[in-house]
Design goal:
The complex is a heterodimer.
Chain A (H helix, E strand, L loop, with lengths): L1 E10 L2 E11 L4 E5 L6 H8 L7 E6 L2 E2 L8 H7 E4 L11 H11 L5 H14 L15 H13 L5 E5 L7 H18 L2 E6 L2 H7 L2 E6 L2 E6 L1 H6 L3 H8 L7
Parallel strand pairs in A: 3-8, 3-9, 6-7, 7-8
Antiparallel strand pairs in A: 1-2, 1-4, 4-5, 9-10
Chain B lengths: L1 H47 L4 H12 L3 H23 L8 H39 L2 H7 L4 H39 L4 H11 L2 H27 L4 H34 L4
Helix pairs in contact in B: 1-6, 2-6, 3-4, 3-6, 4-6, 4-7, 4-8, 4-9, 6-8, 8-9
The chains are: A alpha/beta, B mainly alpha.
């Protein structure tokens, strides 16, 4: 579904990604883990063409997207939805407006159908009946759920999650983790989850990729990650900084 | 030895000065290039993408309709004080009947468009930069793009069209209020004959002056909207950047209006010569 080959990205003077190779198969859930600032979100944004690589290739369903102009990326982006770290809700619109927006932009004009699709998406994220609330009236967890509902309302084939549990309390995080898993089963979508939350990684992943110093340092399933004897991997899983008091 | 040291010091200072000037010139050229690209992308979007008329109407209300108060007050008081000052000077040489003509021609050809431009740059330009800048730093623009919507089509095109539509009307409103208030002050307060005032004003004001005012309004609209959209779209560094974007939009738009107005006055005088 999505493939990156020898992906390099330099931001300012810093080379954030230095030769990432990754393949996401259809229906699979890959979790990309790594320390804050390791380039996970940068990698994710390449999957949908929000960032252009300095070097390397990004293929979505076999089609290279790195060199495509912004206008031609529209069709690709309809197949791949993304949940942003902050939810990125349009603050000039209420929840219903936010969810109806992608449907309206896709050319749907039947108000009843739009309302039904919005209600269905909200029900999937356990926010049924919250259509009239404005983004400022929502908690952090609710914003992420509405953001997720906006992503799934247009039924994409692949969903990208950028730090879905960052900034949430443990109960809300657990709830989002279950939601991701439930959506995978219900919608049969391909998913890429970027996180540094190991609970999210172990709960949602079919495969885990550990991004370290701009490269995929480890790739394998959750058991393989836990069993790894590599000290770099173990330090990350156990949350050991190596600093002392 | 000392002479050699002072010579190398002067050379070092000159090098630093040229380097600084070069850097300023390069960043100015880069800024103009970015602005030109934004204009080109917007013009392209107007032809290849569908126009969102609902957003256009919303922006007309926001930019045009809601700017009326500030424009009317500016025009009214400027016209009134301009009539009074002109009268104080002309009265000494017995030419007070020419006050109407001076107020009218000056407001149409210079003051009306420039003052409206400056007021709209302050009100609308700042709002555009702040709104788009906030959307940029909160990833709302990325969200738009991720949903397959081009940011220029959605954010820039409706604002550009709304500004081009609204500004000439705001200029007309400003000038009309200025002339009316000048007339009131001139005839009711300062005692100029109504018949002379109107006669002189009509004699010296022609359609060329109206065309000049509207053309300037249109050009200033383009300046304000592109400068402000560019500032918004290039906002960085979170809240600090969002705070800086409107300030820079207003400063750059205002300076651009004043500078462009000088050259525009000479250029338009060829097509619409002063009567």
């Amino acid at each position: 579904m999505i493939e990156v080959r020898d992906l390099h990205k330099t931001l300012g003077n810093q080379e954030v990604l230095c030769g990432v190779d990754l393949q996401v198969e259809k229906g699979q859930t890959i979790v990309v883990i790594g320390r804050s600032g390791s380039g996970k979100s940068v990698l994710l944004k390449h999957f949908i063409g929000l960032l252009k690589p300095t070097r390397g290739e990004v293929l979505v369903e076999g089609q290279p997207i790195a060199g495509l102009p912004e206008r031609k990326l529209g069709e690709i982006r309809k197949k791949v939805g993304i949940l942003f770290q902050s939810g990125a809700l349009f603050d000039s619109m209420n929840v219903e407006g936010n969810l109806a927006f992608p449907l309206w932009e896709a050319g749907l004009r039947n108000k009843k159908e739009i309302a039904d699709r919005v209600a269905e998406a909200l029900e999937m994220v356990d926010l049924a009946g919250e259509q009239k609330k404005m983004p400022e009236d929502l908690s952090g967890g609710m914003r992420k759920r509405v953001g997720l509902a906006r992503t799934i309302v247009s039924r994409p084939a692949c969903i990208l999650y950028d730090e879905p549990t960052t900034g949430l309390d443990p109960i809300n995080s657990d709830s989002i983790n279950h939601l991701i898993r439930r959506l995978q089963k219900r919608l049969q979508v391909t998913s890429v989850v970027v996180t540094h939350d190991m609970k999210t990684a172990f709960h949602t992943a079919d495969q885990i990729a550990y991004l370290h110093e701009g490269r995929i340092y480890f790739y394998g399933d959750a058991k393989g990650l836990q069993d790894s004897q590599d000290p770099v991997v173990q330090d990350f899983i156990m949350g050991r900084s190596g600093d002392s008091d | 030895m000392l002479r050699g040291q002072s010579r190398s010091g002067i050379l070092g200072s000159a090098r630093l000065m040229f380097r600084t000037l070069g850097r300023i010139a390069l960043s100015f050229i880069q800024y103009l290039g970015e602005l030109a690209l934004l204009v080109a992308e917007t013009v392209q979007a107007m032809f290849v993408a569908h126009i969102r008329w609902r957003l256009f109407l919303r922006q007309v209300v926001e930019m045009g309709f809601r700017s009326q108060l500030v424009v009317v007050v500016t025009g009214g008081f400027t016209g009134a004080v301009f009539a009074a000052q002109t009268y104080f000077q002309f009265h000494r040489i017995g030419m007070e009947s020419a006050v109407g003509a001076v107020v009218s021609v000056s407001m149409f050809r210079e003051l009306g468009p420039v003052l409206t431009g400056l007021m709209v740059a302050g009100r609308v330009g700042a709002a555009i930069a702040a709104e788009i800048g906030t959307m940029k730093v909160t990833e709302q623009i990325d969200a738009l793009r991720a949903l397959g919507v081009h940011q220029i089509d959605y954010l820039v095109v409706p604002r550009v069209l709304a500004m081009m539509f609204s500004m000439p009307m705001l200029v007309a409103e400003c000038v009309a209020l200025a002339i009316w208030c000048g007339y009131l002050v001139g005839t009711q307060v300062l005692g100029i004959s109504k018949a002379y005032y109107i006669h002189q004003m009509i004699t010296f004001t022609g359609t060329r002056d109206i065309k000049m005012a509207l053309t300037k309004g249109f050009v200033f609209a383009i300046l304000i909207v592109f400068v402000s959209c560019h500032q918004g779209l290039n906002t960085k560094n979170g809240a600090v950047g969002v705070g800086r974007a409107p300030t820079e939009a207003v400063v750059i738009s205002s300076l651009a209006i004043l500078i462009v107005n000088f050259f525009l006055s000479f250029a338009l005088n060829i097509f619409y010569p002063a009567g």
